[in-house]
What we know:
Blueprint: H1 12-21, E1 28-33, E2 36-41
Antiparallel strand pairs: 1-2
Amino acid sequence: xxxxxxxxxxxxxxxxxxxxxxxxxxxxxxxxxxxxxxxxxxxxxxxxxxxx
Length: 52
């Protein structure tokens, strides 16, 4: 089972924003940008994924 506070794989601004928002892996998140709304579940990110 994945530790909820294990943000391995997330780096830079993404990690900073996740921590600032106080969300954890498995949480439902909602992001609004440019009049659009995006919803989803925060999932673990591969440590070997592309930086972007």
